[in-house]
Amino acid sequence: MTHTPLSNRMKWFVEARFGLSLHFGLYSIAGRGEWLRSTERLSVEAYQRYFDSFQPDAGCAREWAKAARLAGAKYCVLTAKHHDGFCLWDSQLTSYKATNTPARRDIIREYVDALREEGIRVGLYYSLVDWHHGDYPAWGDRQHPLRHDPASRERDEKCDWPRYLEYMHGQIEELLSNYGPIDVMVFDFSYWDFIGEKWGASELLQKIRRIAPDIVINDRLGFEAIKQAEPPAYVGDYDHAEQNIPRAPVTNAVGQRVPWEAWMTINNSWTFDPHDQNWKSAQALVRALVNCVSKGGNLMLNIGPNARGHLPSQGLKILEEVGQWLVLNGESIYGCGAADFAKPEWGRFTQNGRQLYAHLLEPVIGHVNLPDLLGRVKNGRVLATGTEATLYPYWNPGVQTFDSPDDTFFNFGSTPQATLPLADARDTVVRFELTEEEERLQLRERAAEEFARATARLPF
Is residue 377 part of a domain? Predict the structure, then answer.
């Protein structure tokens, strides 16, 4: 299986492997989800009370940036504008923005500056959909708050779609021009006939590349265009799997692997919801990250700040625990990707060049089998401690057989068949060095000789 050619702008992204996203806006005050206007079919007037009371605490962006760093995230994405049309920056194209609320602040400016101080790459989310703008059609739409309001029929007759595109394109140009280099742009989302050139997508991408040639863009201007054999001109840089980790590396129509990212929530909500206490454990998130990297993908983990801009304490604790694991084991994540070997039954492999990382996700009775790796690995070390993980050939030759003559084994002690506890129940990582071909043959020959000597001493 081959890889699609990787552009220079994508190299940092596929090496980063772990990002944090933040959904924050007027809906954070209500605490009932970012789709609040749609699910409750709220008018602009009914939603106005959140605009009139939007006032996050000063310094909240620094809290977000610190949390991203402590979690081990290498990039961060914030909702500059969600579907409700509210803008967190001082857009010159609308009055529906944070600088006109009681906050009187450009939240995007604070966020960008805070991330750069912490050494985190900067990402922005921008919704192609806009339920506030007068030129975005409402009647009969899939999700517009006024989709069933009879008055929307007459309203839609006055919609000027080219005017909306001019507004949308203009806002994106603002975001990419006024805050220094932006590293990632996440668009959300295409549906029905609102897809591709309906957004003026080819023209938009040309504008983006002119302003920010090195920016990384997700693939939501169309529908999985990156998977097509001949992608359109507006194709993004990576596939976006929302609330899903693919079961295998993502490929296009001709079988080439493409970059991808799983976008997951830390509980069950994208935004702050005081009633959602279904927090994923640090163990579950570490394993999700490992799962993504083992298939050549990234994990972007979302958390929602509350109305005052603070991250929930439980969420912070979980992020910090993930970060603590990465301090000890990040070598097996950052810069790594899918291994050249099949997934083992006890966990996952990740690989970076000649370094192979075995991620043990469950206890093993007896020794740990490395299928088909006889002579191909050496120098086993527990990554978090540096302790030796001893490699063994067949430990009971002539008495019993094992799965394959090409298998080898390792354990954490001097007795190969002993059952020993994992050093880290979340994921114990063992690093091996892959051998060169000549050394591989020598090691296999030595193992065969040891096997012959052992069987020659048997009394039967």
Answer: yes
